[in-house]
Amino acid sequence: MGKKDVTIGIDIGGTNTAIGFVDPEGNCLYKTTIGTKGNEPADKFFKRLKEKINSLIEETANELFLRGIGIGAPNANYYNGTVEYPPNLSWGYVNVIDILQKDYDVPAAITNDANAAAIGEMKFGAAQNMKDFIIITLGTGVGSGIVCNGQLVYGADGFAGEIGHTIYDPDGRLCGCGRKGCLETYASAGGIRRTVLEMLGTSGTQSSLRELNPEELTSKKIYDAALQGDRIALEAFEFTGKVLGTKLADSVAHTSPEAIILFGGLAAAGDLIFEPTKRHMENCMLNIFKNKVKILPSALQEGDAAVLGAGALIWNELEK
Amino acid sequence: MGKKDVTIGIDIGGTNTAIGFVDPEGNCLYKTTIGTKGNEPADKFFKRLKEKINSLIEETANELFLRGIGIGAPNANYYNGTVEYPPNLSWGYVNVIDILQKDYDVPAAITNDANAAAIGEMKFGAAQNMKDFIIITLGTGVGSGIVCNGQLVYGADGFAGEIGHTIYDPDGRLCGCGRKGCLETYASAGGIRRTVLEMLGTSGTQSSLRELNPEELTSKKIYDAALQGDRIALEAFEFTGKVLGTKLADSVAHTSPEAIILFGGLAAAGDLIFEPTKRHMENCMLNIFKNKVKILPSALQEGDAAVLGAGALIWNELEK
Q1: Would you say domain A130-297 falls under CATH 1.20.1560.10?
Q2: B28-39: per-residue pLDDT in tens?
Q3: Are strands B16-22 and B28-35 parallel, antiparallel or unpaired?
Q4: Which of B151, B286, B296, B316 to mutate to test the interface with A (most CBs of A within 10 A)?
Q5: Which of A153, A182, A223, B162 is most buried, most CB within 10 Å of its CB?
Q6: Residue B1 clears pLDDT 70, i.e. is over it
């Protein structure tokens, strides 16, 4: 029996790095993880990563045939093959593709996690057969990947797709990027936390969230409270959807996507976030765009999505 | 001697429709105009247009060989070949490509004027050799054309590129589109007029513009006053650049263009608009994008730009 063609998908996160094979049908095989160890220098990390890759390849040598390596990583640049000064890793400027291609004689490509997620949805998920869509990742930060004419938009410098850093309110919340009022300061896990803290301060409304100290207040606890009808929690989701929907109306005016896919932690809140986002987006949109743009959840298996996206990235290159 | 290959470029404006041949080097030949007559039904307009096209073709039959027809028009849809309920024409929904291809056996394509301008700049103007750029047309309204990966972005529905209708201030000025605070209400010819009127009302600053009645106050007069150092006029350009630069920073976060080209009436004010736009854009931009994005004037011959853009549209299709 012939071997099965696969790519390796590698998702480098701040805490863990997930590695798995991805077959042409979008199955994730032999998935495993290593610690990323953010304060470790890049060369040590890549030594450990290669050991893990080698043992995976060895283990599956009779069964799988490696066609390429795809990587999703913070501050990754597709054109340069680099990771450039990632905020939570002490790597500085690292050419990841050079490092990998010293040892592996297959094509490799890298991009940031949101772009990898976009390609994952296009090949295997909610955006199959779509030529124009946007993915928004609502996690610790807010990332985005934009697809136009069936191609991911990397822009002139490889860093396109930073919708999380479009400005909702120029006098608004301080963002990690040093500016004020970025979408990310409202529509991320930390953003909804800040919204609840503000609301607890400004309103007198009763809320079970008042019993938590600010350290304990997580987006998960806000979600649980909302499910139980807590008014502050419900208002916080409503406000988050308002901010997100307002900014997405601007995004639609740029690239007029068929759909916007919401992905990541906050998207798991389902209708609590989808309904107000959709309502406010429709409300803010130019007439010609109204009632056209779907807001969809990711259709990738939750735990595998990042590895599938990274694996899809290189499948996509191989098909070019 | 062989005949020269040309396309016809047709720019349908609210008042006049310009028609000319466009050669592969971007020269505009035999340009002429007819009145658009906005309250005339579409079939009458196209009857007159065809008569003009026929006489142009007849006149040049020994010299030129027609390869295609490109049209720029308000509310035009590239995918459908239609003009759909244009605001200043009583046409309703018209399939322009069907109408033209009944009589002319050459490829034809239509898009809105800003998209046509983008393709004109890409083929013959300031964006030659660029794969990622944005054009902003600052005229009666604010239009835009977005190019990513060397292709114009039409979006899922053919209406992408409405940066003029992204929101600067949700509580801001009423826009012709029925919403509030669109970029167009600030950065258009009418927008700077509104800015001056507001400033004349709210400040006590001396200004030659106070001598004009509101009917006489045009963007040209504001420009002339600014050149003479009028403080209100200068402040109005500063504010216009602030609004435009702030919103362009959001656009950069979407598609990370190599350049943004400013085109049309207000762009003719040169440094008065370019300098504050660039300064505020840089100020509002995410760090990774700073000092990368050029703001450029159009490089198309002013009077011919719209016809060149329309002619370039179909040259671009022929080369696909």
Answers
A1: no
A2: 999 999 999 989
A3: antiparallel
A4: B286
A5: A182
A6: no
